[in-house]
Write a structure and sequence with these properties.
The protein is built from 7 helices and 7 strands. By secondary structure, it is α+β, with helices and mostly antiparallel strands. The chain has 2 domains: about 90 residues, no CATH class; about 70 residues, Orthogonal Bundle (Topoisomerase I, Chain A, domain 4), CATH 1.10.132. It has a 4-stranded antiparallel β-sheet with strand order 3-2-1-7. Helix 2 runs antiparallel to helix 3 and helix 3 runs antiparallel to helix 6. The longest helix is centred in the N-terminal third of the chain and has 16 residues. The protein is globular.
Length: about 220
């Protein structure tokens, strides 16, 4: 009862300092919250489920393996089990190294915004750089149109490669002879870990909050 009374008091106090016409309502109660940056945060609900808000934590540019690692990492962080994150990282790195997962786990999906003809003209005029999805579409047997999605993965043996020249369509991947670029995907996993290292290793604890409530204005 005291918690509910405190929540009502907080909302009332906030309402007093907000401009007229803006009303706050309690949207939910959450045992823990991770604040990454403005409008980017993760909430742990009372059933132990994760709720993520903001493009900084839900970027469309992330491959599936990155999104899954991020969600599992945040869940451990909010549950106060960050000591398990190192094992989580090692498991993902090992899955990549030993080709345990289907290529859809690593592949990037991009939508063609331009026609192939316009793309080629822009590259020739040096108005844009070569891009893997377009280069693959040009070499494909089927015709690609603007709006079509291209799913592809990176090949090669080094972490840093020219992706437009070192990629294949996901449909060309052979599970018997996997050729995805392990070093490249290891580097992407490490880059994501480094992004959250301050919180994982304890230096960013000021942005972790317990017993949080979210209000909707």
């Amino acid at each position: 009862m005291k918690l509910a009374a405190d929540e009502e008091k907080l909302i009332a106090n906030l309402g007093d300092i907000l401009p007229k016409g803006i009303e706050l309502e309690l949207d939910g109660r959450y045992p823990a919250m991770f604040s990454y940056k403005m409008k980017n945060y993760a909430l742990l609900d009372e059933q132990g489920r994760l709720r993520i808000k903001g493009s900084g934590l839900r970027s469309r540019g992330l491959e599936l393996f990155q999104r899954e690692w991020l969600e599992e990492m945040l869940l451990l962080l909010l549950k106060g089990e960050k000591e398990k994150i190192a094992d989580l990282y090692d498991r993902y790195a090992d899955d990549i190294a030993k080709h345990r997962r289907d290529i859809s786990w690593l592949a990037k999906n991009e939508t063609l915004q331009d026609s192939l003809e316009n793309y080629q003209a822009k590259v020739k005029a040096k108005k844009r750089n070569a891009a893997a999805p377009y280069e693959l579409a040009l070499r494909a047997e089927r015709p690609y149109q603007p709006g079509d999605q291209v799913s592809y993965y990176v090949t090669g043996a080094k972490a840093k490669v020219k992706i437009s020249e070192n990629s294949k369509l996901a449909t060309d991947w052979d599970a018997e002879k996997p050729d995805e670029n392990v070093e490249h995907y290891h580097a992407k996993l490490k880059e994501l870990y480094e992004k959250f290292r301050p919180w994982i290793e304890g230096n960013g604890s000021q942005d972790l909050f317990a017993a949080s409530s979210e209000s909707d204005g």
